[in-house]
């Protein structure tokens, strides 16, 4: 359903060279992929490019989702097509109630797909149910989007949005970072409930920890803007025990020291 | 010395001659005020307080005399407050009894038309601001407006709404004057609503608000203009010891709107709270000009204004805090935040402090920014189209001010009016 080929990308307006340097990734319906990599390896860049954030220039390669050229689509068109990104750093939107935001988003997506909008009561049922599952207190639904939420609450709120929007392909960017073990379980549980034969999930993470709860079908190691190795779930464990530097050494890949600094 | 005045057109004499026959009160006072006005002339843009706002067109073209125009309750319905409300309506300065409702006022609350009261009480025309030509013009032609008094210790339950309607496209000039006196320990909530049903016309209003010791006055000031309709208003406010005055202004329309506030905190612990939101669209000019004087110790004052500048709109904010040397432990706060929706919008914002006491806390800040890109992307990444996302964020920006309006209907009206001015606002109708 998702096919990324030879993706090269750089930041606009900055003379820093490419961040992604020929990335390939293919996700089929029903699969869970983990993308692991040290800080600064380009994980969030990949996530933002998939979601359509401004400020990145794709210099080479392509991204197709169900055959469509994703890079030509507006962010809202991508959402309507069924793409979802759980942000590493969710955004606070003061003055906009979480509940209103969720319903507006859901109805926008339904409308774009030519499906009937959901009425207020139906929405409330769906929302309450999902909020319970991801462990979001009901007062957080009435508050402004992410405003004054703790780190964990923000992450749960991302999963809640995903659960409400029911995307075809979800990309979770370090949804595990900053979560205690209970929150991690709840979040993983929320993700696992969404696993289905029609849905693809890409879990971006720094540590192997989350993958004990969301067991991936495929694991990819992203270093220096490229996927340097792919494998099954055992790769995550191997990576955890060896660390990125040893793995890279084995692969005979020269990696600048600063690309690995945060992984020891 | 530079010339700071514009000679009023000769037609102002004609205007005065035309209206003076129906003015209440002492004709000699009226003549004297008119002479004073001619002498002062209109301020030009060399006067610091008028640097960004031009009265040239008003000075050179005297508006016609106002005439009563038939207006129905249905015309006004979107602007009226409901529930426990007493109401006085003026159309082009003429009181409209059939649109008003001041039957059965509670004990301790007196509401009279200005014209009725000025007949016996000439002093109501006295000029507090002897140097201000627009006040002199108002004093010369004052017609319409209310005199409101709340007796000591009275907690008035109905909200009092004063509605000033500019109707018809003939473009007449109304000069209403309001006097509100809240007695010691008394409490009043009121709304001052300006509605332009026609696309032209000028309202030049002068307000005098007085809050006695431990009294409390809350004002929702709602301004719904259109076309070239012009509103120039001056509110003088005095707050005595431990008194409190809170006003929230929302300006949604008007070719030229100028809101002047001149407030004095006269006794210890007097409290003043001024909030405002303005959203000029193409061809509109909204100018907020505030001077707060701290004349006693331990007084808090607060100014919180937000501007949304739509394409082609022009906003001006000038707020000055003056702290007298006796006003120790003053706590004065001023914030003016502006959101530019287009490059061809304009905002001139100028906060100013003048402090003569040494133990004070004063802060002021002004910001001019655009919609947050990251916030926009976040909303769009959830499927919300760009225009709606922009409207949501813009609307949210004004929300903090709108929430400070006292009456629920005021908040609804303000939201509806702002959404009506926003591209994509119709999609947010449920937020009203
Ligand atoms: N907006 C930006 N401006 C400048 N450099 C950036 C920006 N975004 C990312 N980078 C750089 O690109 C590299 C990859 O960043 P990122 O994709 O956030 O990595 P990861 O999510 O894997 O930690 C880093 O070196 C980072 O400093
Ligand atoms: Mg990242």
Care to give the gist of this entry?
The complex is a heterodimer of chains A (264) and B (432). Chain A is an alpha/beta fold and 264 residues long.
Keywords for this structure?
heterodimer; A: 264 residues; Rossmann fold; six-stranded mixed β-sheet; 12 strands; B: 432 residues; alpha/beta; ten-stranded mixed β-sheet; 9 helices; 22 strands; globular; binds adenosine-5'-diphosphate; binds magnesium ion
Fold and architecture overview:
The complex is a heterodimer of chains A (264) and B (432). Chain A is of the alpha/beta class and 264 residues long. Chain A has one domain (2-90, 166-262): Rossmann fold (3-Layer(aba) Sandwich). Helices cover 37% and strands 27% of the residues of chain A. A six-stranded mixed sheet of chain A has the order 6-9-10-3-11-12, sandwiched between helices. In chain A, strands 2-1-4-5 form a four-stranded antiparallel sheet. Chain A has a two-stranded antiparallel sheet with strand order 7-8. In chain A, helix 2 packs across helix 3 (98-112) and helix 4 packs across helix 6 (151-165). The mean pLDDT of chain A is 92. Chain B has two domains: 5-371, no CATH class; 372-432, no CATH class. Helix content of chain B is 20%, strand content 38%. Chain B contains nine helices and 22 strands. Chain B has helices spanning 11-19, 27-40, 56-60, 73-76, 114-118, 133-141, 373-381, 386-402, 408-421; strands spanning 5-6, 42-43, 85-91, 94-95, 109-113, 146-150, 159-166, 173-174, 177-182, 187-196, 202-211, 216-224, 230-239, 244-251, 256-265, 271-278, 285-294, 300-309, 314-323, 331-340, 346-355, 361-369. A ten-stranded mixed sheet of chain B has the order 4-3-7-10-12-14-16-18-20-22, covered by helices on one side. In chain B, strands 5, 6, 8, 9, 11, 13, 15, 17, 19 and 21 form a ten-stranded mixed sheet that branches. Chain B is globular. The A-B interface holds A 51-54, 74-76, 78-80, 84-85, 87, 90-91, 93-96, 100-101, 104-106, 108-109, 112, 144, 161, 165 and B 373-375, 377-386, 388-389, 392-393, 395-397, 399-400, 430-431. The complex binds adenosine-5'-diphosphate and magnesium ion. Residues 43-44, 88, 173-174 of chain A line the site of magnesium ion.
